[in-house]
Recover the amino acids of this structure.
C-alpha cells in the first residue's frame, strides 16, 4: 500500500500515518495529563515544525547540486524530500526541551509519544510485510499492441516504472525530468506506463510535447496502480537489478527527489 484514499483525496501512506500518529499522541497525552489538566498539542506542533524544517534542510544540503539550477524547488515540500533521521532528532530535541522546562508535561508527553510511535511503526511495519515487492504482473502492451514482459524489458538492470496519464498535470510537469534521466542513466531502464488511455492519445501528446521516450507502454485496464497499492498519479516505482521494489514516490518528482532515489539504484547497476 502506497496511498490511502479519503474520498477524492489520495494521501501518501507515510503522510497519513504521521497525521494519525499525531492525533493518537495528542489524545493519549490528554488522557495521561487529565489530572493536571495538561495537554501536549502545542508540544506536538512544535515537534512537527522543527522536524519538518530540519529534515528538509538536511535533505536539500545533501542533494544541493540537484537544486542549484532551480533554487525555488528547495521550498517545494511536495517532492517528499526529507531526511528522516534529521527530522526525528530535531523533534526529539524539542520534546526533551519541553519536558526539561515543565515537569508536568513529562508523563503525558512520554505516554503520548510512545502511543504515536507504536501506531506509526506498527502499521508501517505491517504494511511493509504485506506489500508485494516483486515486479508487477498487470498486462501491458507497446504502442503497437504487442505484449510487454517487464522482466525481459529490464534485462537484468534496475528498473524505474512511471505511472502516468496525459490528463494528469503533475505527470506532464515531471515528464521532461524523467526523459532527461533516461538519456543520462544508460545503466538503468525506464518504463513509462500510461494508465487507461489508448495509443493514439499517447502518441498525440508525446508529439505535441516534443518528448522522445523509450519504453512507453499501455496499461489499458489501469491495473498497475491497484496492484502496487497506489491510488494517485503520478506514481514512480524503483526496482533493483534483482526485480525487487526498493523505493517509491507518489506525486510529482523534483530533480532532488529523483536524484536521491536513483542513487539507491546506481551501485546495484554497477555490479
Amino acid at each position: 500500500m502506497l496511498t490511502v484514499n479519503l474520498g477524492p483525496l489520495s494521501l501518501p501512506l507515510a503522510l497519513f500515518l504521521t497525521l494519525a500518529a499525531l492525533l493518537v499522541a495528542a489524545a493519549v497525552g490528554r488522557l495521561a495529563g487529565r489530572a493536571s489538566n495538561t495537554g501536549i498539542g502545542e508540544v506536538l506542533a512544535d515537534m512537527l515544525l522543527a522536524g519538518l524544517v530540519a529534515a528538509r534542510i538536511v535533505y536539500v544540503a545533501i542533494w544541493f547540486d540537484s537544486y542549484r539550477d532551480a533554487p525555488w524547488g528547495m521550498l517545494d515540500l511536495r517532492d517528499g524530500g526529507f531526511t528522516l533521521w534529521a527530522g526525528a532528532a530535531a523533534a526529539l530535541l524539542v520534546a526533551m526541551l519541553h519536558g526539561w522546562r515543565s515537569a508536568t508535561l513529562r508523563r503525558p508527553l512520554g505516554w503520548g509519544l510512545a502511543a504515536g510511535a507504536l501506531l506509526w511503526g506498527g502499521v508501517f511495519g505491517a504494511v511493509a510485510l504485506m506489500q508485494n515487492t516483486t515486479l508487477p504482473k498487470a498486462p501491458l502492451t507497446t504502442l503497437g499492441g504487442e505484449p510487454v514482459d517487464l522482466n525481459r524489458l529490464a534485462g537484468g538492470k534496475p528498473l524505474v516504472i512511471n505511472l502516468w496519464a496525459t490528463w494528469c498535470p503533475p505527470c506532464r510537469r515531471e515528464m521532461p525530468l524523467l526523459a532527461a534521466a533516461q538519456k543520462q542513466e544508460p545503466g538503468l531502464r525506464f518504463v513509462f506506463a500510461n494508465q487507461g488511455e489508448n495509443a493514439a492519445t499517447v502518441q498525440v501528446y508525446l508529439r505535441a510535447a516534443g518528448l522522445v521516450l523509450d519504453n512507453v507502454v499501455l496499461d489499458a485496464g489501469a491495473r498497475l496502480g491497484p496492484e502496487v497499492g497506489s491510488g494517485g498519479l503520478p506514481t514512480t516505482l524503483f526496482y533493483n537489478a534483482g526485480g525487487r521494489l526498493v523505493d517509491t514516490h507518489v506525486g510529482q518528482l523534483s530533480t532532488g527527489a529523483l536524484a536521491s532515489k536513483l542513487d539507491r539504484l546506481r551501485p546495484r547497476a554497477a555490479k
About this structure: The chain has a mean pLDDT of 92.
